[in-house]
Amino acid sequence: MERTIQKRLPVGEGSWVTVDVYGEPDAPGLVVVPGAMSDAHTWRHVARAIDAWPSVAVLNRRGRAPSGPLTATYSLRTEVEDLGVILDEFGGITSLFGWSYGGLIALLAANDRPLRQVIAYEPVMRPFGRHALPDLKAAHDRADWDATVDIVNRQISGFNKAHIAALRADHQGWAALRRLSKPAHAEITALNTAPPPGAMARRADRVDLIIGRHNLGTAPYGSSFDDVRRHLPDAEVHELPAQGHLAHIQAPTELGRLLNALAAAR
């Protein structure tokens, strides 16, 4: 399906979020919550591959244009409350999908309100990325976004020098990563300073967790996935073959098909 509208919604403290809506804007569908180093535009190919819901609303979280700033009191709870504003605006939404940090936000939102289904692709939780916080802070204080992108990819995601060199060689892609890296320090800090969750998706009827097969049992994403899974013993677990953490970029059609299949299972 194609994008039909973009909505801008105030979320308090002078900030706002935008939502890209695909399909029928007045028909309740699926809300997609991207994670760090990602935005609504990055998820356009996945949204277009989904047809099991009448609409797909992709949240552009704070800190990335055209949404507003994080604000001084930003926290993980801020993200959950922002998502609540979206769910209130699009009345009747009963399904959420979140990726990485967005997966955690979606799972926590389902503690606040009843939802029919929450799907999370490799959700992360504390202490994910904690070891990189000093270097992230130093790079952020210098407004050194090249260093920030390098830290996220090398120290947190564990990618090798060849992978990072390939990213740098794509000048347009690297410029986009620089823009998306600006909230990274605040987001990793929020992830690691939030109280440990006592429960996740407490009010969801069904929880589906997805992991790329390349990350099974491996740090950092597979190990954080296992930490989340321990909080959700009744969740259904699904593997996406031949993929790692970046399936929305490397295999958007395959990810969309899996989401369609999970919609049929609810």
UniProtKB/TrEMBL annotation:
The UniProt record lists the keyword Hydrolase: yes
DNA repair keyword on record: no
Keyword set, alphabetical order: Hydrolase
Top-level lineage group: Bacteria
InterPro entries: AB_hydrolase_1 (IPR000073), AB_hydrolase_fold (IPR029058)
Entry's Gene Ontology molecular function annotations: hydrolase activity
A Pfam cross-reference name: Abhydrolase_6
SUPFAM superfamilies tied to this protein: alpha/beta-Hydrolases
Domain AB hydrolase-1 residues, every copy: 30-255
Protein name: Alpha/beta fold hydrolase
Source organism (scientific name): Marinactinospora rubrisoli
